[in-house]
Design a protein that fits this description.
binds adenosine-5'-diphosphate; 18 strands; 9-stranded mixed sheet; about 475 residues; 6-stranded parallel sheet; single chain
Length: about 475
């Protein structure tokens, strides 16, 4: 089967969050048995230099070359450059639209840039004549609308990674979608008087998936549907939740070159201790006690991640022996509060502002617990990375977190500590339970259990395969 994925992110080239990791690891697994292609934008600053094969493909279909609008002329000068990565063929969309960017999101004209990328992905799917076209999130959603209107429709799947970001733009900005080469009727995509790319994807795709069964359920009502729950309910029978897997080569304490000492479920006590010492030294806090619980937090500092609740719980539980290491950037107010805590309580709290892949691995390896206070979480990856690193996750009961972490009273089934979402008091009690668990020998059983959990893609890959088969059946 030939599968083309269209995405704005792909690890290690462009990564802003879980989408990059999920797609890179899924495609690596799919490539063991299928022909797998990925279309992604070529921005000026990539995380790694691509291994180009020298082959290139147009970004405009021959029949669309006839007209002479601005859109067409930009696409005429754009192209896909083929590269290879671990058995997967990558197609970098080279265009003046993306070339000047050093990061993928947050720039003006996103409505135009991603619409053009979506057209180009649609064009590539037709040229490569793939069996399945799989688009991810709003950035590539319009390609599904183009696919649906196409004479030669390719069976399609749309994966929602985060419904909070919908690519909704004022209508006056999106008039070009009615013209060549798009020729789209955009009124069905209207939502709150705006043209909503996410809605276009939901209505146009053959099949829809999201990244956990728990999140699927939550998105079909408000507030987690972010206004689009009615569309998802309309498509309920075509909508599946498939939990993300993790890349067990990239995130593996037995092989990880980014951490201070590799370890397994046999020698984790010594391994984690060495990693804690190494981390404390690296962050300039070598005086911190290594026999007190270390709690790691990593993530984009956005509303979704629920950090204000953590701040409240932290202050109310100052008497606990926990140490905290936080890595992230985003909301300036949250950054300011974290810097303030870092300055005020240097023996308890450390904050690193920024994006740092290698520090993320070191925190996972060194921490005893990993805290995720999310208000909503489509899947979440760090709780699964934490499991394999023997780091007990403390998570809110939402989305993919509730699908992957269970606070059972029966020890063999306990895989973490779970608290109620958006509830600082419940989070405070969770921090207390973490202290109790740390001081009890039950912790050894929990750590050994979680290190043996299997979050690999082997099983999930089959679930995607079954969705693909159903999408193909729709077209027969
Ligand atoms: P989301 O996609 O909502 O950001 P996920 O938990 O699905 O959340 O994935 C986040 C991924 O990005 C994880 O691999 C996490 O370690 C990584 N990450 C987030 N922020 C940072 C950061 N500041 N430095 C390094 N890695 C980060």
């Amino acid at each position: 089967m030939k599968i083309l994925h269209a995405s704005a992110e792909y690890f290690p080239y462009i990564k802003m969050g879980g989408l990059a990791d999920m797609l890179a690891s899924l495609t690596k697994e799919q490539a063991k048995s299928e022909e797998v292609y990925v279309a992604l934008p070529l921005i000026g600053k990539l995380g790694k230099s691509p291994q180009y094969t020298g082959k290139e493909y147009p970004a405009l279909l021959p029949r669309d070359r006839q007209t002479d609008s601005l859109v067409v002329s930009v696409l005429k000068t754009s192209r896909f450059l083929e590269a290879e990565e671990g058995g997967v063929k990558l197609y970098f969309f080279e265009s003046e639209l993306f070339q000047p960017l050093d990061s993928i999101y947050g720039h003006a004209e996103e409505h135009f840039r991603f619409a053009m990328f979506s057209y180009a992905c649609y064009c590539l799917s037709q040229i490569l004549n793939v069996d399945i076209f799989h688009a991810h999130d709003w950035h590539t959603a319009l390609s599904l609308a183009l696919q649906k209107d196409s004479v030669k429709q390719i069976p399609s799947v749309f994966t929602i990674h985060n419904l909070a970001y919908q690519g909704d733009h004022p209508y006056w900005m999106t008039g070009f979608l009615k013209e060549e080469p798009f020729r789209l009727i955009t009124s069905p995509f209207e939502h709150n008087d705006k043209c909503n790319y996410m809605k276009a994807g939901i209505l146009s795709a053959g099949k829809i998936t999201t990244v956990s069964p728990g999140y699927r359920e939550e998105t079909m009502s408000e507030p987690n549907g972010f206004g689009l729950s009615y569309c998802l309910r309309q498509r309920e029978s075509d909508y599946t939740g498939i939990l993300n897997g993790i890349d067990s080569e990239e995130w593996n304490p037995e092989k990880d070159k980014k951490i201070f000492k590799t370890y397994s479920s046999k020698d984790w006590k010594e391994g984690k201790l060495k990693n804690k010492e190494g981390l404390y030294k690296e962050i300039g806090r070598p005086f911190l006690p290594t026999d007190t619980p270390l709690i790691g937090l990593i993530g984009r500092l956005t509303y979704q991640k629920g950090f204000p609740n953590f701040l409240q719980a932290f202050l109310s539980r100052r008497h606990l022996p926990h140490r905290y290491v936080v890595l992230g950037s985003g909301d300036p107010e949250t950054e300011k509060s974290f810097f303030h805590l870092s300055d005020t309580f240097p023996d308890v709290f450390y904050f690193y502002k920024g994006y740092n892949e290698s520090l993320a691995h070191k925190i996972e390896a060194a921490s005893d617990f990993f805290l995720m206070p999310s208000l909503f979480e489509p899947c979440g990856l760090n709780q699964m990375y934490s499991h394999v690193y023997g780091t007990i996750p403390i998570v809110s009961r939402v989305g993919g977190l509730r699908d992957t972490v269970e606070e059972s009273n029966l020890l063999p089934y306990k895989t973490g500590i779970v608290f109620e979402p958006n509830d600082a008091s419940s989070l405070g009690y969770a921090l207390e339970r973490a202290k109790d668990l740390y001081q009890s020998t039950d912790r050894y059983i929990v750590v050994e259990n979680i290190m043996n959990l299997n979050w690999s893609w082997e099983k999930r890959k089959k679930e995607y395969q079954s969705v693909y088969t159903k999408a193909i059946e729709l077209k027969i």
